Amino acid sequence: MKEYTYSEKKDTRSGFGAGLHELGKSNLEVVALCADLTGSLKMDAFKKDFPERFFQVGIAEANMMGLAAGMTIGGKIPFTGTFANFSTGRVYDQIRQSIAYSGKNVKICASHAGLTLGEDGATHQILEDIGMMRMLPHMTVINPCDYNQTKAATIAIAEYEGPVYLRFGRPSVPNFTPADQKFEIGKAVMLNEGTDVTIIATGHLVWKAILAGKMLADKGISAEIINIHTIKPLDNEAVLASVRKTKCVVTAEEHNRFGGLGDSVAQVLGTNFPAPQEYVATNDTFGESGTPEELMVKYGLTENDIVAAAERAISRKQ
Amino acid sequence: MNPHNKSIEELKDIASQVRRDIVRMVHAVNSGHPGGSLGCTDYFVSLYFKVMNYSTDFKMDGKGEDLFFLSNGHISPVWYSTLARAGFFDVKELATFRKIDSRLQGHPATEEGLEGIRVASGSLGQGLSVALGAAQTKKLNNDNSLVYVLMGDGEVEEGQVWEAAMYAAHHKIDNVIATIDRNGQQIDGSTNEVMSLGDLKAKFEAFGWHVLEANGNSFETLLPAFDEAKKSTGHGKPVMIMMDTEMGYGVDFMMGSHKWHGVAPNDEQLQIALQQLAVQVASDY
Fold first, then answer.
1. DSSP 3-state of B173
2. Is B212 domain-assigned?
3. What is the C-alpha separation between B27 and B21, in angstroms, rounded?
4. pLDDT grade, residue A155 (50/70/90)?
5. Chain B partners of A94 at a C-beta cutoff of 8 Å?
6. Chain B partners of A103 at a C-beta cutoff of 8 Å?
């Protein structure tokens, strides 16, 4: 098992804030809109240094999506910022009509996704956003795994023409991705080559997949670990090449088992190369209040859960 | 410059032709929304043949041009006819309205690349937000042209309209001229029956807008209202024209009722309507 180390834990939302600030300097067409959550989204630096390109929208997310769509007309590249819940479910029709169907170059940047929002509870812990966004034609869906990758993704999506949903979170997690690693939309990142089982993870579950890989190695099981930061378009070739080799797969995500990464992978496998698959995901439930760590344990999203799922998947191989 | 810059007499003739197109388009597919389309015909003809500065060589970015957004997308027939008559695309294409493989979708869309349309609309309440975003980009680009947007009166029952109204005043978006088609009708009945709108002029003034009123079925009052609205831009406030129209205007049996909101005329009704909509030089598509 390849060794992965990190010097510090950092939150992915700060990676977004840093990437956005860098874009402020490097791309004069980039503008930012925020619905009264500037501090939470780490957009303060952009606001301070580029005030003429920062737009405070107030608590009015529907208006924010329409504004962003309109700002693209004339060449601006708008980045909207609010929590993942208010970036998707609250404004689904605005995104659908004014952004996706209209093909507008808007970057919907969504923080505090998933259970790791923690104590605020289920009203804010959206576990359905990946599903909603990947169902929209024209939409690209990205869920990076750590600070460096979120920063790189933020910068990369400004260069891509078209609507993007960029999902990140609140807690500090190991920052292990090399700072100079190029972010390629739609390209899977191979973290460890193995032969017995494929583990495909996204977002905060990627580090846990690495921990699980070590535990499996100690048991004599060789796990191939893939970081899928782009859920749509999915890197079908990488998924198929790996599962053709290992003959079984575990998918891991901080999202409902319906509609997310797991279903994306299942669709590719089911239509090309059927193989045993185990899901590490929430089981069609809302979250609740608690610390992020407690919630990840209670809802089955730890390295132990990935190890158990891997063993189940291997046992189902023909 | 407006590429046509027509006289009032010419505008009246064009409006009659557009109204003929509207009733023929909805009759051909036995669907679509003639009532609001007929009521707003004079508004559209004013914009595209007199008021707005634009090029018929359509570019999505619209830099240096006045932009128009239709928020109540269901009155697409009047927009399609006006765009075709103004030279954005061949009037023959009007015959494809609402048919399979057409660029003239039931509600306006950009997906098929129809010239003149910059955002999809139909799901109500979204157009004002889009127009405000486009207006702010014009300011960032030091582009002094204006942004026009039309909404229905029933449409302001959508909450997003008020989010946008508040935002426009707060950010002093004074390069937008919004218009509400105050025809007093919506699908289920009059706005008074369905959802009382109250004093819309006072409501928008309370939200910080500069509000004018005009009769939308008279070029003699509509054109001066546009002149005044233009003069009111650039003074720190968003500008609104409360435009009174008669749904179905120009076809007597379609006027004064919500019943022709989304119903097409039959063969006999079409002939009666066309007799009432005379043009000096008829040039039906």
1. coil
2. yes
3. 10
4. very high
5. 126, 129, 160
6. 110-111
For B199, the token pair is 């004093």
Judge: B133–A73 Cβ closer than 8 Å, yes or no. Answer: yes
Return d(Cα A197, Cα A222) in angstroms, integer.
7
Domains of chain A, earliest start first: 9-174 (3.40.50.970), 189-315 (3.40.50.920)
Count of structural domains, chain B: 1
Chain B residues with beta carbon closer than 8 angstroms to that of A64: 129
Structure pTM?
0.97
Q: For A74, which residue in chain B has the nearest alpha carbon?
A: B61
What does the pLDDT read at residue B282?
65
Closest CB to B126: pick one of A53, A57, A98: A98
Decide if A55 and B136 are in contact by the 8 Å CB cutoff.
yes
User: B3-23 pLDDT, tens per residue?
Assistant: 999 999 999 999 999 999 999
Show the domain range for B213.
8-276
Q: What are phi and psi of A133, to 5 degrees?
A: -75, -35
Q: Is residue B233 part of a domain?
A: yes
Q: Could you tell me the CATH number of the domain that includes residue B201? A: 3.40.50.970
> What pLDDT, on a 0 to 100 scale, did the predictor assign at position B279?
87
ipTM of the complex: 0.97
> Is B282 part of any domain?
no
* Beta-sheet strands, E only, within B37-81: 67-70
Report yes or no: A192 and A224 within 8 Å, Cβ to Cβ.
Answer: yes
